[in-house]
């Protein structure tokens, strides 16, 4: 449901602000995908949904922060510099390790640290090379 609401909101915002055509298509894809999955979700739902403050907070977090804000930030970064924006995707596993450690108490192993160091070193090298080519 959150993805459907996010898709509708994104389409409404785009009509008012005349955001680029590419972003409009992404919002429409989210909306159509959410509507297409809705019947399947309703048919396969096995647990009762309890609507309480935790549910509402989680739904709002997913709709606004995870869907709308992150997509807007991503498209903003793509407009500024597509190469730098794509390099940030390599930090996703690193952020996952950190959030797993902070939120879930997951241990950070030496393999996780080694992988993180390799990712950071690769990003640093690519950033230096990109800067040299740009000058």
TrEMBL record:
Belongs to the EamA transporter family. Signal peptide: none annotated. The keyword Isomerase does not apply. It comes from the Bacteria. This is DMT family transporter. Keywords: Membrane, Transmembrane, Transmembrane helix. Residues 29-124 form the EamA domain. It comes from Chitinophaga nivalis. The chain crosses the membrane at residues 55-76, 88-105, 111-130. It holds the Pfam family EamA. It is a multi-pass membrane protein. It is found in: Membrane.
């Amino acid at each position: 449901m959150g993805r459907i609401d996010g898709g509708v909101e994104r389409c409404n915002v785009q009509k008012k602000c005349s955001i680029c055509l590419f972003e409009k298509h992404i919002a429409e894809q989210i909306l159509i995908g959410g509507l297409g999955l809705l019947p399947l979700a309703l048919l396969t739902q096995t647990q009762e949904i309890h609507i309480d403050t935790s549910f509402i907070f989680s739904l709002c977090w997913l709709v606004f922060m995870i869907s709308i804000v992150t997509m807007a930030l991503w498209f903003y970064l793509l407009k500024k510099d597509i190469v730098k924006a794509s390099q940030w995707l390599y930090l996703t596993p690193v952020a996952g390790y950190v959030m797993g450690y902070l939120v879930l108490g997951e241990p950070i192993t030496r393999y996780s640290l080694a992988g993180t160091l390799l990712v950071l070193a690769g990003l640093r090298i690519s950033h230096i090379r990109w800067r040299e080519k740009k000058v």
